[in-house]
Amino acid sequence: MKFARVFPSPFVSQTLHEPPGPTPSAAETFERFWKRLQVRFTHCLCRQRGQLPHFLIRGHLDATSCVISQPLTGEVQVDKSDVPIKSIELQLVRVETCGCAEGYARDATEIQNIQIAEGDVGHGLPIPVHMVFPRLFTCPTLETTNFKVEFEINVVVILQDDHLITENFPLKLCRV
Description:
By secondary structure, the chain is mostly beta strands. It has one domain: Sandwich (Immunoglobulin-like). It contains 1 helix and 12 strands. The chain has one helix at about 25-35, and strands at about 1-5, 15, 40, 55-60, 65, 70-80, 85-100, 105-120, 125-130, 140-145, 145-160, 165-175.
């Protein structure tokens, strides 16, 4: 899954796909969509637009359906940032949802946080992502009628002026 963030503006987004080629099957289209998704955020009119620094951060995750015994891999690359970067982190979050007649209760718990870069990183240099899933705090993704255990990965960039940039990706974990 590829991603790119251009700031300022968390409000307006558009999805960009690869240029069209030969007509693929529905399964190939779905697989290509999830593996090569790019999200690009553009300018919008908002009160705080002048306070938000400009930046361009790109990257990709090699898969969002992961075998629990294999690491999550990919890379992040800072192409442009008006403000120096303090750190880049990966957060693994477990999301538990319970449902009953009264409604649903959702609880998100951070189970792992890895700092993959510290200080102002070189622009244009790829930063590798390599996260091993913690054995005691992860399990295969589970979804039943009244109960769900899901996982998400957050890529968090903290700027020197304490602006926080985050991108969230749902993960599906399985055991083989």
